[in-house]
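hiii so um. not sure if this is the right channel but i have a protein structure encoded as tokens and i wanna go backwards to a sequence. like what aa goes where. can anyone help
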């Protein structure tokens, strides 16, 4: 993996760059659709290619449990398995282990947990998680980290951070056993405590990862505090490495975070809300299930040129959702992912013209006040 920083906005910390992998190059800032179990819900790999998506996220925890990483490896790796030839980043599964699995218990050695699928018992060390991601054939990989809830005490966060940093060191050491061009990201934790975030960032930078992620955010803390922590944490990360904010996916927070120097984003929210009629438009998010759209012949967004907006009306899509037709969920999901992909492309263009602040303000003025 190679990251090239190509330009920076004159009045904000927004950056434009490129990440090169064995499966192609993509621009940053970028939004990654979430294909947790090897598929972006409702959207085919062909759809993603048509949108110009260059990278997607899959989850090592889910694929480890089903169908099993050995099975995927035998079938040629995740790219071949799901017919996706773009880049793939795999989340280590730390968040899922701590939020979905039952009876999990972590230690300096690793994490022991019961599967949310069948209750079977498992133990994964940070080295195991790295091995799984290599077997899947990921282009970009995440270290195993311990995710914390909100709120917690400083002492609880400090104890958790010690585990996360130990796992990060061990994962970095284990990388020497693999001959690969894949990139490895460290994850900045520390809950909402700036001293812990600073310590984590500095120790991870000393280990010299290929990129750095901000984890443990979007878990219930106030948005204003989240923004403050993003800006604070990014200040301790090197400019020559990509910065990844995990689990954030609304247009407002994407643009705010780009302005703070973040390069990569992922979130399942765009497709999740789309399946229930939540639609991104230039004039704000709408609820397509509302009666006001029953006879609306307009596209979801009159300024959007995605496949859905070129071919279908709000009235028809609303009908499909109320009728629980799978096509409706597929078409609305397509639109929401396209909307964010296009937004990030436009953000990159604005950065290159040194007018990102104006672009952001103009977009949010219309998005929040229409």
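sure thing!! here u go:
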């Amino acid at each position: 993996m190679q990251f090239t920083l190509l330009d920076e906005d004159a009045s904000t910390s927004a950056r434009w760059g490129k990440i090169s992998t064995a499966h192609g190059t993509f621009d940053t800032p970028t939004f990654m659709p979430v294909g947790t179990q090897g598929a972006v819900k409702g959207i085919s790999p062909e759809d993603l290619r048509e949108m110009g998506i260059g990278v997607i996220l899959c989850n090592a925890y889910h694929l480890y449990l089903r169908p099993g990483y050995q099975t995927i490896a035998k079938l040629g790796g995740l790219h071949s398995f799901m017919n996706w030839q773009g880049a793939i980043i795999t989340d280590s599964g730390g968040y899922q282990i701590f939020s979905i699995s039952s009876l999990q218990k972590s230690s300096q050695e690793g994490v022991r947990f019961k599967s949310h699928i069948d209750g079977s018992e498992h133990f994964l060390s940070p080295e195991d998680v790295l091995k799984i991601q290599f077997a899947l054939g990921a282009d970009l990989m995440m270290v195993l980290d311990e995710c914390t809830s909100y709120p917690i005490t400083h002492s609880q966060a400090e104890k958790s951070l010690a585990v996360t940093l130990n796992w990060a060191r061990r994962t970095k050491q284990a990388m020497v056993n693999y001959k690969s061009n894949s990139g490895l990201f460290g994850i900045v934790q520390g809950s909402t405590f700036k001293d812990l975030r600073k310590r984590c960032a500095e120790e991870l930078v000393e280990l010299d990862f290929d990129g750095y992620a901000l984890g443990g955010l979007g878990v219930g803390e106030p948005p204003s505090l989240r923004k403050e922590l993003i800006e604070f944490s990014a200040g301790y990360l090197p400019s020559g490495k990509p910065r990844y904010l995990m689990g954030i996916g609304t247009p407002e927070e994407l643009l705010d975070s780009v302005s703070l120097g973040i390069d990569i984003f992922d979130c399942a929210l765009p497709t999740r809300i789309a399946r229930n009629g939540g639609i991104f438009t230039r004039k704000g998010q709408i609820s397509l299930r509302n009666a006001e759209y029953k006879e609306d012949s307009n596209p979801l967004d009159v300024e959007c040129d995605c496949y859905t907006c070129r071919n279908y009306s709000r009235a028809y899509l609303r009908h499909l959702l109320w009728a629980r037709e799978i096509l409706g969920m597929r078409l609305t999901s397509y639109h929401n992912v396209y909307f964010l992909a296009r937004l990030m492309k436009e953000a990159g263009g604005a950065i290159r013209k040194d007018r990102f602040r104006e672009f952001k303000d103009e977009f949010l003025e219309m998005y929040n006040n229409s």
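oh and The domain at 2-267 is CATH 3.20.20.105 (TIM Barrel).
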